């Protein structure tokens, strides 16, 4: 049975049991402050469990892309070193929201595994929660009784809180769970020791395949448990492990989930995969085929690699794969991007995002590979210098601070430093390195540390967002909680009527005030969490139950919504000018400016930018009224031509914003008419990542300021030049500058001629060659001309010039043609460049190198004398 067939059989089975089959949510979470990524199948349904949203159906089933590389659920370090841990994995799941509970969940699981998939019953074991006295939690007797009707009692195992009480995080929905384990060992091995003794003991062939979680509680911030409003079922079955069981394999990597990827790596690397756990080559291949899935799907869902947040996690995973392939597969050029096509073929029918976004995904990965491989090459130079310094200091241990700096500042893998050091008979200060890592973690933790207390609920009232229609509202605080961080003590409040727009969809959250006749509080930010609109204020009201007036900062809202509306017009204009391949890939909408990232593979020309600006401003002047469809079925919106963005999770009903022919699904605030935008001006166009361009622009008040400042600058320039015709005056200055430059160049040539005569007489006979080593302040162009002339005129010569023109170190090497077989200019300059922390190259007869450390020129000079 192929993996595609297994996936389909699962979904078909639950469809026959009246479950609604829904698509996977994006792997990247954009509007959940508690999680970066979907780390389990239940993540997209969290609001249903907490009662914040009404489920779309009482029974749901799906296959969810998950990522576990940060926080509590972190499998990254295990990946590649065993047969079953992964960064990205699929979680097959069925869900009941207040409908069926333990009895039916257990019956469905047993029937599917044993009758539909045909797993022998004697190969299965189940666990139940044994209870926990410290939390007054009793043994899950109900689950035990239901399992007895399907499986012999000696195969039902008591499990502790760690294994059999599932919690999503430090707080949130949780409950007892019942795991199903499968024994995949041979009959001979089973005869030696019972599978009963190996359950939950990390045996690679006795593995958990399915977890049935019975959601009954909500874990509060004070660690207490409260009953959820309704009982739910949340199950998660590891797709890769299920494939291993059904395909008769002993490793996930031997299933057809991974074998096509492994075959491609074998083809590209020339290495053969043998499946040996301890073989570094095989570990590297497992790391590569696992990590490419995580990175590719994260990018397809809209998360580009970056230096912070979720983007940093993705970059770290990708760099781990590159590092392994560089060291153990001997691949020194980009190749991971070539695996994206295999993923498209394997998974495109179930996950259309990888099919549609494949070209972009491959371009981004290739760019990241190029960049990191350069980082490795530059790091090798730094490591070599550190090793030489260590040896010079008569030490055998590389200092921890410098090794950590290589890792932390320059991104050079610490394990690669270790390997290089060992080859030279050295070690690194492991204890010191670990201490530096711990310091970094503590610094990072201190920067982000935040203690959040439990909600204090006041009078029960409905909680509504009224900000689409008004920016001031009479309101009550329905609940509040204290928050402590490095900046002090604050309070988060939820309002019965909130005009404050919560950060989302690229738009910043509203600020403002919450006040009454007695006291006033500044609203510092507004965000959304678990369906609640939460505003942060700088104190706690004396009477939290009193009536308040919530007022949005009107000027900021006006400018933000103008910038948001104009991003819609910009998106449409870009598709008209550049083509329909253009899709939004990220945005920032604030009161001061807007940033818009979009898929496009070339730098925009001045003509294209001007045309886009013209089209947007034309729409603004047309005075197009906003058409808002506040709650419309998503299919109806799509049928009307609304743009839906990859990487966004939409509900059954959506909000559609329309300005004429521009139609987008959007939850942000907008102008009532395009004329309110005023004027649109593109400030810059640049590259955000491979295949992603970025436009930064302004509108409204900021656009007026821009042109006002421009007019002021022109006036000042006119006064400075003492001319009303600024252009003509600047042209005259440019002509004069060109003339002066020509005079300077002529002076340089005269100076160079004088140097040539002196340098010709300065060669010294060293063995079979004439060697010239000189320091100069001549510019690079002049040095190049002289070296080329000298290597032609001086036979059997090696010429090395070290220059410090404009404060920048430069090394130039010339070798006469008759010595080119014995002395390589490129090799000489590469060795000398280490002293100036630089690099370069050329050919056997001529090479140059620039660097960063001008003080290193003296060391380079002394070394050059020994060539």
From TrEMBL:
Look up keyword Repeat and say if it applies: no
Alphabetized, the UniProt keywords read: Aminoacyl-tRNA synthetase, ATP-binding, Coiled coil, Cytoplasm, Ligase, Metal-binding, Nucleotide-binding, Protein biosynthesis, RNA-binding, tRNA-binding, Zinc
Q: Which Pfam families match?
A: DHHA1 (PF02272), tRNA-synt_2c (PF01411), tRNA_SAD (PF07973)
Name the PROSITE patterns for this protein: AA_TRNA_LIGASE_II_ALA (PS50860)
How does the cofactor attach, per the note?
Binds 1 zinc ion per subunit.
CDD domains registered for this protein in UniProt: AlaRS_core
Indicate the segments annotated as coiled coil, or none if absent.
723-750
Keyword Nuclease applies: no
Gene3D superfamilies, A to Z: 2.40.30.130, 3.10.310.40, 3.30.54.20, Bira Bifunctional Protein, Domain 2, Threonyl-trna Synthetase, Chain A, domain 2
EC identifiers of the protein: 6.1.1.7
Domain Alanyl-transfer RNA synthetases family profile, by residue range, is 1-709
What SUPFAM superfamilies does the entry give? Class II aaRS and biotin synthetases, Putative anticodon-binding domain of alanyl-tRNA synthetase (AlaRS), ThrRS/AlaRS common domain, Translation proteins
Q: Which GO terms describe its biological process?
A: alanyl-tRNA aminoacylation
Its GO CC terms?
Answer: cytoplasm
Localization, per the record, is: Cytoplasm
Q: Which domain of life is it from?
A: Bacteria
Annotated GO molecular function terms are: alanine-tRNA ligase activity; aminoacyl-tRNA deacylase activity; ATP binding; tRNA binding; zinc ion binding
**According to its UniProt entry, what is the function of this protein?**
Catalyzes the attachment of alanine to tRNA(Ala) in a two-step reaction: alanine is first activated by ATP to form Ala-AMP and then transferred to the acceptor end of tRNA(Ala). Also edits incorrectly charged Ser-tRNA(Ala) and Gly-tRNA(Ala) via its editing domain.
Family to which this protein belongs: Belongs to the class-II aminoacyl-tRNA synthetase family.
Listed PANTHER family = ALANINE--TRNA LIGASE, CYTOPLASMIC, ALANYL-TRNA SYNTHETASE
The cross-references to HAMAP family, in alphabetical order and at most eight, read: Ala_tRNA_synth_B
Q: What is known of its domains?
A: Consists of three domains; the N-terminal catalytic domain, the editing domain and the C-terminal C-Ala domain. The editing domain removes incorrectly charged amino acids, while the C-Ala domain, along with tRNA(Ala), serves as a bridge to cooperatively bring together the editing and aminoacylation centers thus stimulating deacylation of misacylated tRNAs.
**Descriptive protein name:** Alanine--tRNA ligase
Q: What is the lineage of its organism?
A: Bacteria, Pseudomonadati, Bacteroidota, Flavobacteriia, Flavobacteriales
